[in-house]
Amino acid sequence: MSNTPKTPPVLPDNASPVQRVIAWIEYRLPIFSIMKHQGEYRTPKNLSYLWSFGSIAGIALVIQIVTGLFLSMNYTPQKDLAFDSVEHIMRDVRYGWLLRYVHAVGASMFFVAVYAHIARGLYYGSYKKPREMLWWFGIIIFLIMMATAFLGYVLPWGQMSYWGATVITNLFSAFDSIINGLGTAIVTLLWGGYSVDNPTLNRFYSLHFLLPFVLVGLVVVHLVALHIHGSNNPTGVDVKDEKDTIPFHPYYTIKDFAGFGVFFLIFAYLVFFAPNYLGHSDNYIPANPLVTPAHIVPEWYFLPFYAILRAIPDKLAGVLAMFSSILILFVLPWLDTHKVKSGRYRPLFKKFYWLFILSVTTLGYLGAQPAEGIYVILSRICALYYFSYFLVILPLLSKFEKARPLPESIAEDYRRKH
Ligand code: HEM
């Protein structure tokens, strides 16, 4: 952006008051040309419904912020009042039950959208050059999302809130075996004391309120990075000319809305017919530091990572493996260096990709089972496959896999199919 003075717009004498207001605003802040850019933004003409998950995730984030804001008006972040304040929202506040269920189910739906979004990116090689920064910001968003969801789950101060917070924060004490006292110092800082208690609830509430706005900022950067090179597409072949593209509006606005329709049907079904289906019934028991639940289970969206944590008997190694399972995504563009982006033209990659999805889903199942016997053995096998996929299989495929011939262009591929 340059600082050279801009000439004010010259309007015809018969310009309407609306045109004058628009010109006045545009001269000071070019929001209308930004909106116009979005509408005219050229997009590959062959994007499938899988490309709707980004917008769906954006809507899910807005829903979380709006419902969260209204919940905060009646919630009390005090350990003796928090549980009751949530029950007060459910029973006494007008439509409080709806706000709470939309927020709780919304967290799950947000993860559904983001997991589909990531899986799409992994299959079509959307992380490859020149979209590495876009991918990185996606991973940072994912990490902050997970932190936000974890903090939010503590707020109702039920048994699972309390014990989930205790188990997960305690993981940091594993760092004591690297530097003596370091882990304990981190845990004490997180707790604001020597156990999960009122100061913990207070700081978790503040951070849970703050982080969604950090997410909004990160999503803006994510989208700026997206608009630099534009979307990847199911062929993985770059856009060559105008014939490969269509304007975002109205084509993808309407397609995204069709995606929203299906998403909201499932969302509404869960909110109105099975609002507690994805939650744990123990969280309707007020937190009790003297009674540990039989099984401490995190929400479903953390289960694959929880299973990796428990697959390894050593605490520090388990914690490191769990964090690495996400952080490894940062170096993915340099592990999968195959020239062909899209999995569609890579017969071997395809097989290993679906095995990867199977291993993550199985880890999700195993994370909810007791950490014993066959469950632990299976978790180890799946965790081993998870890391091998990134560290061994993808680098080897990058070297040796022979891809099927690519279409000349997006337009060519489109013509063949329609
Ligand atoms: C709050 C969460 C997120 C929102 C709102 C969001 C939003 C979007 C939107 C609107 C798009 C363009 C439409 C599309 O391609 O689906 C996009 C593209 C993309 N996002 Fe995200 N995103 C989020 C999280 C993530 C995460 C967690 C990752 C990866 C770890 C990621 C990686 C990507 C990539 C690689 C693209 C380009 C895809 C392509 O062009 O094929 N995003 N994102």
Helix and strand arrangement:
Blueprint: H1 17-28, H2 31-40, E1 42-44, H3 53-72, H4 82-91, H5 96-124, H6 132-154, H7 159-170, H8 182-191, H9 198-229, E2 245-247, H10 248-273, H11 303-311, H12 315-327, H13 332-335, H14 347-367, H15 373-400, H16 410-417
Antiparallel strand pairs: 1-2
Helix pairs in contact: 3-5, 3-9, 4-5, 5-10, 6-7, 6-9, 11-12, 11-14, 11-15, 14-15
The chain binds protoporphyrin IX containing FE.
Describe this structure in words.
Strands 1-2 form a two-stranded antiparallel ribbon. The relative contact order is 0.12. It has 16 helices and two strands. The radius of gyration is 24 Å and the shape is globular. The chain starts with 16 loop residues before the first helix and ends with a helix. Helix 3 (53-72) packs antiparallel against helix 5. The protein is mainly α and 418 residues long. It binds protoporphyrin IX containing FE (HEM). The site of protoporphyrin IX containing FE has 28 residues, from helix 3, helix 5, helix 6 and helix 9.
Short description:
The protein is mainly α. The chain is built from 16 helices and 2 strands.
Query: What is the overall silhouette?
Result: globular
Radius of gyration: 24 Å
- The beta-strand count equals 2
N/C terminus separation: 42 Å
Helix share bin: 55-70%
Secondary-structure element series: HHEHHHHHHHEHHHHHHH
What structural class is derived from the secondary structure elements?
Answer: mainly alpha
Low-confidence stretches: none
Summarize the biggest pleated sheet: 2 strands, antiparallel
- Mean residue pLDDT: 96
Main-sheet strand order equals 1-2
